[in-house]
Write a structure and sequence with these properties.
Layout: E1 8-10, H1 15-24, H2 31-38, H3 42-61, E2 67-69, H4 75-82
Parallel strand pairs: 1-2
Helix pairs in contact: 1-3
């Protein structure tokens, strides 16, 4: 669809962290589903792993590089990928679990 688009795969530390974040964030707004899915977050962890592998596989199939990035990596990898200067400010961290 966008053959020249850069591919950025935003990562979490691990699948468990992703599943917990999903349960505490998105599922908060989907209360009917929350009780059902919070009992077993294995499917969320599996979905995280499978999605990330799908992105890697599809990019490889097309001969495209993927930047696997985490917010802790800061500006540098993003700016290098986008070929733009690194901002002269700290990378924002506004999506902390304690702030939600």
């Amino acid at each position: 669809m966008y053959p020249d688009a850069k591919i950025l795969l935003n990562q979490r530390r691990d699948p468990t962290t992703c599943a917990q974040s999903f349960n505490e964030g998105v599922m908060f707004f989907l209360s009917q589903l929350r009780a059902r899915f919070q009992r077993n977050q294995d499917w969320l962890e599996d979905a995280y792993v499978l999605h990330n592998q799908w992105v890697r596989d599809e990019a490889a199939r097309r001969g495209r590089p993927v930047l696997e990035w985490m917010p802790d990596n800061g500006w540098e990898p993003l700016c290098e990928l986008l070929v733009v200067p690194v901002p002269n400010m700290p990378f924002p961290h506004n999506n902390e679990r304690t702030n939600l």
